[in-house]
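Minutes, structural biology subgroup

Action item carried over from last meeting: produce the C-alpha cell record for Secreted protein (Saccharothrix espanaensis). EB confirmed the sequence was re-checked against the source entry. Recorded below for completeness.
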Amino acid sequence: MTKLARVLGAVVTASAATLALTGGIAQAAPNTVHLYTGTEALCQKIGDGGVANDVFDSYECKSGFGGYSTLVDPSPDLLAGVPVFTDAEAVCETVGTNGVTNGAWSAYYCQFGIVGWTLLVDRW
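Output recorded by EB:
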C-alpha cells in the first residue's frame, strides 16, 4: 500500500505541475478586449489607429444594440506614449480607462491637440 501511495502522490504532483505550467502559458496569450461601443466609423478609427501603431494585432467592429463594439486583440509589444486615435475628450477617457481595466495597456493619457484629444498609451 505504501508503494501505491507514493505512485499516486507522484502522479498527482506531476499533474499539478503540468496544470500550473499550461495555465501560465494560457494566461500569457493576449485576450480580446472590449474598448468602446459607438458608431462604426469610430470603431474603425480606434481599430485602424491601434493596428497601424502596433498597439493591437487585430480588431473587430461587432454590431449590437448600443452600436458597434470595438473588440481588440492587444499586441505583446512594449509601448511608451503610442498614439491610438483622436476624438472627443470623453471618448478618449472612456477608451483609455477601459483599456487599462481590461488589460490592453498599462497606462494612458489624453493629450489635447488642434483636432481633438489623442489617446496615448503605455504598456510595460
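Discussion: Confidence is low (pLDDT under 50) at residues 7-29.
Next step: EB to file the record with the rest of the batch.
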